[in-house]
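2024-03-11 09:14:02 DEBUG pipeline.ingest accepted 1 chain
2024-03-11 09:14:02 DEBUG pipeline.ingest length=291
2024-03-11 09:14:03 DEBUG pipeline.predict start
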Amino acid sequence: MRNSIKALLLVIVFSIFSTSCKKEDKSPSYHKGELTILTDESFKSVIEALADGYMINYPETKIKVVTKKEDLGFLDLLNDKARIAVMSKTLSPKEIKAYEEQVDLKFLPAKFAADAVVFIVPKDSPKESISMDEIKNGLLSDDKNFIFDGANSSNINFVAQKLNKAPGDLKFSVISGNENIIEQLAKYPNKIGVIGLNTFSRPYDKTSENLRNMVKILPVSDKGKIYTSDADGLREMKYPFTRVLYFLTNEGNFNIANGFIRYSCTQLGQMIVQKEGLQPYNIYKREVQMR
């Protein structure tokens, strides 16, 4: 009888333990599982670097970075085809409302880096700068002297917003891909390429160095002042086409998407952003004088 009671107790304990393990397996986890991140091609490099860092810290995670035009990535997020998307444009009240209604979460962008849209010409071009008026007038001209990487992209979205225009109002030429614009720009000496800075912002990367050597970035003049897309221009957001990159997710719990977002905004993630040649959003360099 006593042995039977012991056996029964063992069965009950095993059953409880087994059930708790099953519940634990199904519970949200930031340190294991798979995640696909949708990002515009213009800032793919920094997202890949952050994903690599996260997977090194959490070896049981597998993160895939997929490039998709910014507007289309946002729609996939709303339709639950992805758990996280990288954005740069300011969403309209209508877009924010759609996000909050379809995702059922409050709109809380997780800002993590300052990037820029830059204007480039071939290395041997005599052009040394470009004015805001040239940009505004040029993008309304039938000459289509500005080359973008396509419609629905982060670059055209952001420039249109800065000029208070709808993307469809602007007139431009298209070469698909930021790197392709750099590599083919010499064929069109009178045109100006418009790309994301992160395309070649990595200071010690050989590919980035080769791309930088093919073109020059034009400073932007406005009201008699010249602004550059260097570290100071981004940090102080004086460069007119500085943009803040942020994450959006439809994940309501603390699973791998929110874990990745938190990691990207911590000091370790921000150091990766800095190594990519971009301005970290959440940390700044501090100078300490020792006496």
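2024-03-11 09:14:41 DEBUG pipeline.report The CA atoms of residues 20 and 26 lie 10 Å apart.
2024-03-11 09:14:41 DEBUG pipeline.predict end
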